[in-house]
Amino acid sequence: MPHTVEATLLLMIPLGAVLAFCIWALWGFSTELLAGGRQRVRRNSNATQVMIYAPPQPVLRFSRSHDKEAA
User: Fold this and answer.
1) Mean local confidence (pLDDT), 18-31
2) What is the rounded distance in angstroms from the CA atom of residue 33 to the CA atom of residue 37?
3) How far apart are CA 16 and CA 30, in angstroms?
């Protein structure tokens, strides 16, 4: 005698997983709200600074007119 599984039961598995994740996320968020909100993460004062330099001279741009098009 083969054992069959109802299709509605199989559809409940992903829905139950989504429901469990939502409950877990809201539970964690509510504990943060009760604790007084998120704590600000302070930056490390020894962090490496990234310097962005401008090019030393303007980049040359070539302009073409219609009478000087490439072959």
Assistant:
1) 92
2) 5
3) 21
Report how many helices (DSSP H) and strands (DSSP E) the chain contains, helices first. Answer: 1, 0
The CA dihedral of 39, 40, 41, 46, to the nearest 10 degrees, is -140
pLDDT score recorded for residue 70: 58
Statement: the pTM of the whole predicted model exceeds 0.90: no
- What residue has token string 């993460």? 41
Integer Cα distance of 34 and 13 in angstroms:
32
CB half-sphere exposure, 7, CA atoms < 13 A? 0
Percent above pLDDT 90 for the chain: 21
pLDDT at 38 over 90: no
CA pair distance 32, 36, nearest whole angstrom: 6
